[in-house]
Amino acid sequence: MPERRHNAPTRRPTHPGRSASRRRAIRGRRGGVRVIDVLSRARRATRDLFEVLETGGRLQVAFMSLAPGQTSGEPSAHVDADQLIYVLSGTGKAEVAGRTYRLPTGSLAVIPAGAVHQIRNTGTEPMTSLNVYAPPEYAPRYRER
Question: Residue 6 and residue 87: Cα distance in Å, rounded?
Answer without folding.
Answer: 50
